Amino acid sequence: MKMSRFAIALAPVVAATPALAGAWTQPQGAGQVIVTGIYSHSGKGYDGGGHVADIADRTKAEAYFLAEYGVSDDLTLMITPSFSHVSVQGGDDSTGAGYTELGGRYRLGGSGTSVFSVQGSLRIPGTKRRDSLAQIGSTDSEIDLRALAGTSFKIGGHDGFADIQAGYRIRNGQPPNEYRIDATLGFRPVPQLLLLAQSFNVVSDGAGRGVFGKYRYHNLYLGTVYDLSAKWSVQLGGLMTLDGENALRERGAFTGLWYRF
After folding, report:
1. Which of 42, 56, 84, 259 could form a disulfide with 248 if both were Cys (CB 3.0 to 4.6 A apart)?
2. What is the pLDDT of residue 32?
3. Which residues contact 111 (CB under 8 A, 6 or more apart)?
4. pLDDT in tens, 234-251
5. Number of other residues whose CB lies within 10 A of the CB of residue 96
Protein backbone atom coordinates (compact mmCIF):
# COMPACT_ATOMS: atom_id res chain seq x y z
CA MET A 1 0.00 0.00 0.00
CA LYS A 2 1.00 3.64 -0.42
CA MET A 3 2.57 5.42 2.52
CA SER A 4 0.61 8.53 3.49
CA ARG A 5 1.89 12.09 3.06
CA PHE A 6 2.02 12.26 6.86
CA ALA A 7 4.41 9.30 6.95
CA ILE A 8 6.54 10.84 4.21
CA ALA A 9 6.90 13.99 6.28
CA LEU A 10 8.25 11.89 9.11
CA ALA A 11 10.90 10.32 6.92
CA PRO A 12 14.28 11.94 7.61
CA VAL A 13 16.58 13.11 4.85
CA VAL A 14 19.67 10.92 4.74
CA ALA A 15 22.79 13.06 4.97
CA ALA A 16 25.95 11.01 5.15
CA THR A 17 29.12 11.95 3.32
CA PRO A 18 31.27 8.99 2.19
CA ALA A 19 34.53 10.79 2.86
CA LEU A 20 37.53 9.80 4.94
CA ALA A 21 37.16 12.20 7.88
CA GLY A 22 37.77 9.79 10.74
CA ALA A 23 39.42 9.89 14.14
CA TRP A 24 42.83 10.90 12.79
CA THR A 25 43.80 14.57 12.73
CA GLN A 26 45.74 16.25 9.94
CA PRO A 27 49.42 17.07 10.50
CA GLN A 28 50.13 20.72 11.26
CA GLY A 29 50.00 22.75 8.05
CA ALA A 30 48.53 19.90 6.00
CA GLY A 31 44.99 19.11 4.94
CA GLN A 32 42.63 17.64 2.40
CA VAL A 33 39.74 18.70 0.19
CA ILE A 34 37.10 16.18 -0.91
CA VAL A 35 34.31 17.06 -3.36
CA THR A 36 31.55 14.43 -3.33
CA GLY A 37 28.47 14.01 -5.50
CA ILE A 38 25.62 11.70 -4.39
CA TYR A 39 22.53 10.62 -6.31
CA SER A 40 19.80 8.61 -4.57
CA HIS A 41 16.29 7.38 -5.33
CA SER A 42 13.52 6.26 -3.00
CA GLY A 43 10.48 4.48 -4.39
CA LYS A 44 9.82 2.72 -1.13
CA GLY A 45 10.11 3.56 2.57
CA TYR A 46 9.85 1.99 6.00
CA ASP A 47 6.66 2.53 8.00
CA GLY A 48 6.36 2.85 11.77
CA GLY A 49 6.65 -0.92 12.17
CA GLY A 50 9.78 -1.18 10.04
CA HIS A 51 7.89 -2.74 7.11
CA VAL A 52 8.65 -1.75 3.51
CA ALA A 53 5.85 0.23 1.84
CA ASP A 54 5.40 2.09 -1.44
CA ILE A 55 5.83 5.86 -1.31
CA ALA A 56 5.84 8.65 -3.88
CA ASP A 57 9.06 8.47 -5.90
CA ARG A 58 11.75 10.75 -4.52
CA THR A 59 15.13 11.56 -6.04
CA LYS A 60 17.93 13.61 -4.55
CA ALA A 61 21.18 14.94 -5.98
CA GLU A 62 23.69 16.31 -3.46
CA ALA A 63 27.15 17.88 -3.62
CA TYR A 64 29.45 18.17 -0.60
CA PHE A 65 32.70 20.13 -0.30
CA LEU A 66 34.77 18.94 2.67
CA ALA A 67 37.91 20.88 3.61
CA GLU A 68 40.15 19.98 6.57
CA TYR A 69 43.26 21.76 7.82
CA GLY A 70 45.68 20.87 10.61
CA VAL A 71 46.13 23.92 12.84
CA SER A 72 48.39 21.69 14.96
CA ASP A 73 49.12 17.98 15.02
CA ASP A 74 46.32 17.57 17.56
CA LEU A 75 43.71 20.01 16.20
CA THR A 76 42.05 19.89 12.79
CA LEU A 77 39.47 22.44 11.65
CA MET A 78 36.88 21.57 9.01
CA ILE A 79 34.16 23.13 6.87
CA THR A 80 31.61 21.26 4.75
CA PRO A 81 29.16 23.29 2.66
CA SER A 82 26.59 21.37 0.61
CA PHE A 83 24.07 21.82 -2.19
CA SER A 84 21.04 19.68 -3.05
CA HIS A 85 18.19 19.21 -5.50
CA VAL A 86 15.20 17.12 -4.37
CA SER A 87 12.24 16.03 -6.46
CA VAL A 88 9.16 14.29 -5.04
CA GLN A 89 6.46 12.83 -7.27
CA GLY A 90 3.35 14.98 -6.97
CA GLY A 91 5.19 17.63 -4.95
CA ASP A 92 7.35 20.68 -5.48
CA ASP A 93 11.02 20.40 -6.35
CA SER A 94 13.51 21.93 -3.91
CA THR A 95 16.86 23.28 -5.05
CA GLY A 96 19.40 25.25 -3.05
CA ALA A 97 22.11 25.30 -0.45
CA GLY A 98 22.03 22.51 2.12
CA TYR A 99 23.71 22.46 5.51
CA THR A 100 27.13 24.03 6.01
CA GLU A 101 29.04 22.30 8.79
CA LEU A 102 31.75 24.15 10.75
CA GLY A 103 33.77 22.35 13.38
CA GLY A 104 36.93 20.86 14.72
CA ARG A 105 38.44 17.54 15.77
CA TYR A 106 40.90 17.24 18.68
CA ARG A 107 43.15 14.24 19.25
CA LEU A 108 43.11 13.17 22.88
CA GLY A 109 45.80 10.52 22.55
CA GLY A 110 46.67 7.10 21.23
CA SER A 111 49.52 4.81 20.29
CA GLY A 112 51.44 4.36 17.07
CA THR A 113 48.53 2.56 15.40
CA SER A 114 45.50 3.83 17.32
CA VAL A 115 43.98 7.25 17.99
CA PHE A 116 41.18 8.68 20.15
CA SER A 117 39.56 12.02 19.36
CA VAL A 118 36.58 14.23 20.08
CA GLN A 119 34.76 16.36 17.54
CA GLY A 120 32.18 19.11 17.62
CA SER A 121 30.48 21.00 14.82
CA LEU A 122 27.71 23.49 14.12
CA ARG A 123 25.44 22.74 11.17
CA ILE A 124 23.91 25.85 9.59
CA PRO A 125 20.91 25.36 7.26
CA GLY A 126 20.98 26.91 3.81
CA THR A 127 17.21 27.30 3.46
CA LYS A 128 14.30 28.27 5.68
CA ARG A 129 11.37 26.94 3.64
CA ARG A 130 8.72 25.52 5.94
CA ASP A 131 6.41 24.06 3.27
CA SER A 132 8.65 21.24 2.02
CA LEU A 133 9.68 19.24 5.08
CA ALA A 134 9.34 15.98 3.19
CA GLN A 135 11.78 17.18 0.55
CA ILE A 136 14.45 19.02 2.51
CA GLY A 137 14.12 17.80 6.10
CA SER A 138 15.00 20.04 9.02
CA THR A 139 15.60 23.71 8.25
CA ASP A 140 17.00 24.66 11.66
CA SER A 141 20.54 24.70 13.01
CA GLU A 142 22.07 21.61 14.60
CA ILE A 143 25.01 20.81 16.91
CA ASP A 144 26.87 17.55 16.37
CA LEU A 145 29.05 16.14 19.17
CA ARG A 146 30.94 12.86 18.93
CA ALA A 147 33.76 10.66 20.19
CA LEU A 148 35.99 8.89 17.66
CA ALA A 149 38.41 5.98 17.74
CA GLY A 150 40.55 4.56 14.96
CA THR A 151 43.19 1.91 14.49
CA SER A 152 45.40 0.82 11.60
CA PHE A 153 46.55 -2.72 10.89
CA LYS A 154 48.13 -5.02 8.30
CA ILE A 155 46.72 -8.18 6.73
CA GLY A 156 49.12 -10.18 4.61
CA GLY A 157 51.39 -7.17 4.30
CA HIS A 158 48.54 -4.94 3.10
CA ASP A 159 47.43 -1.80 4.97
CA GLY A 160 44.00 -1.44 6.54
CA PHE A 161 42.20 0.65 9.12
CA ALA A 162 38.99 0.77 11.16
CA ASP A 163 37.21 3.83 12.50
CA ILE A 164 34.14 4.15 14.72
CA GLN A 165 32.28 7.27 15.84
CA ALA A 166 29.56 7.65 18.47
CA GLY A 167 27.67 10.92 18.36
CA TYR A 168 24.68 12.88 19.55
CA ARG A 169 23.09 15.53 17.32
CA ILE A 170 21.12 18.34 18.96
CA ARG A 171 18.48 19.61 16.52
CA ASN A 172 16.71 22.92 17.01
CA GLY A 173 13.07 23.34 16.09
CA GLN A 174 10.55 20.49 16.02
CA PRO A 175 12.64 17.44 14.93
CA PRO A 176 13.95 15.16 17.69
CA ASN A 177 17.61 14.91 18.63
CA GLU A 178 19.54 11.94 17.23
CA TYR A 179 21.96 9.24 18.33
CA ARG A 180 24.53 8.44 15.63
CA ILE A 181 26.94 5.55 15.17
CA ASP A 182 29.22 5.64 12.11
CA ALA A 183 31.81 2.98 11.26
CA THR A 184 34.37 2.72 8.46
CA LEU A 185 36.56 -0.18 7.36
CA GLY A 186 39.30 0.45 4.81
CA PHE A 187 41.73 -1.91 3.10
CA ARG A 188 44.41 -1.49 0.41
CA PRO A 189 44.84 -4.67 -1.67
CA VAL A 190 47.40 -2.72 -3.72
CA PRO A 191 49.09 0.56 -2.74
CA GLN A 192 47.09 2.71 -5.18
CA LEU A 193 43.62 1.32 -4.35
CA LEU A 194 41.59 1.80 -1.16
CA LEU A 195 38.44 -0.26 -0.60
CA LEU A 196 35.93 1.37 1.78
CA ALA A 197 32.88 0.03 3.60
CA GLN A 198 30.98 2.59 5.68
CA SER A 199 27.95 2.17 7.92
CA PHE A 200 25.87 5.19 8.97
CA ASN A 201 23.26 4.56 11.69
CA VAL A 202 20.78 7.10 13.06
CA VAL A 203 18.20 6.62 15.83
CA SER A 204 16.00 9.50 16.96
CA ASP A 205 15.94 10.36 20.65
CA GLY A 206 12.24 9.66 20.92
CA ALA A 207 9.73 11.71 18.94
CA GLY A 208 9.84 15.39 18.13
CA ARG A 209 7.01 17.89 17.94
CA GLY A 210 4.39 18.37 15.26
CA VAL A 211 4.69 15.81 12.43
CA PHE A 212 8.07 14.51 13.61
CA GLY A 213 7.72 11.08 15.19
CA LYS A 214 10.49 8.70 16.18
CA TYR A 215 12.57 7.14 13.42
CA ARG A 216 15.74 5.22 12.64
CA TYR A 217 17.70 4.27 9.53
CA HIS A 218 20.82 2.27 8.72
CA ASN A 219 22.77 3.05 5.54
CA LEU A 220 25.65 1.19 3.89
CA TYR A 221 28.16 2.84 1.55
CA LEU A 222 30.58 0.65 -0.45
CA GLY A 223 33.24 2.26 -2.61
CA THR A 224 36.76 2.48 -3.92
CA VAL A 225 39.32 5.28 -3.92
CA TYR A 226 42.05 5.18 -6.56
CA ASP A 227 45.19 7.29 -6.10
CA LEU A 228 46.10 9.10 -9.32
CA SER A 229 49.15 10.62 -7.62
CA ALA A 230 50.42 11.49 -4.15
CA LYS A 231 47.97 14.41 -4.05
CA TRP A 232 44.98 13.42 -6.19
CA SER A 233 42.49 10.54 -5.87
CA VAL A 234 39.11 9.63 -7.37
CA GLN A 235 36.26 7.82 -5.60
CA LEU A 236 33.31 5.77 -6.85
CA GLY A 237 30.70 3.70 -5.03
CA GLY A 238 27.10 2.84 -4.23
CA LEU A 239 24.76 3.22 -1.27
CA MET A 240 21.68 1.54 0.14
CA THR A 241 19.42 1.73 3.17
CA LEU A 242 19.48 -1.66 4.91
CA ASP A 243 16.71 -1.10 7.44
CA GLY A 244 14.66 1.64 9.04
CA GLU A 245 11.51 2.91 10.71
CA ASN A 246 9.57 5.95 9.48
CA ALA A 247 12.39 6.46 6.99
CA LEU A 248 13.21 6.37 3.31
CA ARG A 249 14.67 3.27 1.66
CA GLU A 250 17.35 4.77 -0.53
CA ARG A 251 19.40 3.32 -3.38
CA GLY A 252 22.05 5.36 -5.13
CA ALA A 253 25.61 6.05 -6.23
CA PHE A 254 28.34 8.52 -5.37
CA THR A 255 31.57 9.83 -6.80
CA GLY A 256 34.31 12.01 -5.40
CA LEU A 257 37.54 13.85 -6.09
CA TRP A 258 40.20 14.06 -3.34
CA TYR A 259 43.07 16.51 -3.04
CA ARG A 260 45.71 16.37 -0.29
CA PHE A 261 48.08 19.23 0.53
Report:
1. 42
2. 96
3. none
4. 999 999 999 999 999 999
5. 12
